Amino acid sequence: MSETEKPEAAPVAKRVVTDEELAALTWYGAPGDTGGPQVAFLDDGYVLMRHGADHDAPLLVFDPDEWKAFRLGARDGEFDEVEQQASASGPATG
Q1: Chain centroid, CA 36 distance in Å
Q2: Beta bridge partners of 47
Q3: Which among 19, 63, 67, 84 would be 20 to 30 A from 77, CA to CA?
Q4: pLDDT at 14
Q5: Which residue, among 25, 23, 59, has the nearest Cα to 44 in the 3D structure?
Q6: Residue-wise pLDDT tens digits, 26-65
């Protein structure tokens, strides 16, 4: 390996959420929006996100650092360009 090459980091296993944990969660979403994204907070700092209209859809699992980065990025407008591109190109087809 040369001096400029970085070793690849080992994959980090995502936290497994048990059925018992899921059953005990309180989910939060935007007021009045039952079909949009919803989040739940675990005691160890992990955050789960789900589709409000499809509770069987896969969950997104954020560790505390990932959640902080997501929130800060959204606050700083990192997703604004994506939204503008989507509006300009119309709905996705496929």
Answers
A1: 13
A2: 41, 62
A3: 63
A4: 81
A5: 25
A6: 999 999 998 999 999 999 999 999 999 998 999 999 999 9
Find the DSSP H helices in the chain: 19-24, 64-75, 80-89
Q: How far apart, in whole angstroms, are the C-alpha atoms of residue 51 and residue 35? A: 7
Amino acid at 88: A
pTM (whole model) above 0.85: no
Q: String of b and e for 41-54 (b: at least 16 CB within 10 Å)?
A: ebeeebbbbbebee
Q: How many CA atoms lie within 13 A of 40 on its CB side?
A: 17
DSSP summary character for residue 77: T
CA distance 30 to 20: 25
Handedness of CA 85, 37, 70, 13 (dihedral sign): negative
Can you read off the two tokens belonging to residue 60? 């997104």
**For the segment 23-37, what is each residue's pLDDT rounded down to a tens digit?**
999 999 999 998 999
